[in-house]
Amino acid sequence: MNTTRRLETEVQGFHASPELSANLQRVLVDLIELHLQGKQAHWNVVGTNFRDLHLQLDELVEFAREASDTVAERMRALDAVPDGRSDAVTAGTTLPQFPAYEVSTQEAVDLITGRIYATVATIRAVHDSVDAEDPSTADILHQLIDGLEKLAWLIKSENRKV
């Protein structure tokens, strides 16, 4: 058995580069905004299939909230500093603004599905750069894409006609 012990001075944790930190911050603010917009839709949706969509929006809100926590905690594990303050979210999000009025179930489905896909687009945009520096973090992004695209499919199916 041939092993070489490391010296204490050779043992270091992995630290995110400024680019990795910035990419994860982009994902974080979109997830926080998705959570907030999902809740806004949840409170103000009206119309046919209200209850079903109301409950689906809660599922989306919970997913986005948990995902933002996962990303922020991953940032901390890599010695990056997440910024989830409202000013940072407003300044950094790519999601379109959500209306400040009641929305029909059909409109809410389209609006929220668009916000989910905007969030996924951000994750996809940073993925390759994240993967090049830290494949473990890229695995987290894969799970987020899978989960968000599944939620988009489930929600947009409310408006699908065959």
Automatic annotation (TrEMBL):
CDD domains per UniProt: DPS
Start and end residues of each Ferritin/DPS domain: 22-157
Question: GO molecular function of the protein, one example?
Answer: ferric iron binding
A Pfam family reported for this protein in Swiss-Prot or TrEMBL? Ferritin
Q: Which family, according to UniProt?
A: Belongs to the Dps family.
PANTHER family in the record:
DNA PROTECTION DURING STARVATION PROTEIN 1, GENERAL STRESS PROTEIN 20U
Protein name in the entry:
DNA starvation/stationary phase protection protein
Which organism is this protein's natural source? Mycolicibacterium celeriflavum (Mycobacterium celeriflavum)
Tell me the lineage of the source organism.
Bacteria, Bacillati, Actinomycetota, Actinomycetes, Mycobacteriales
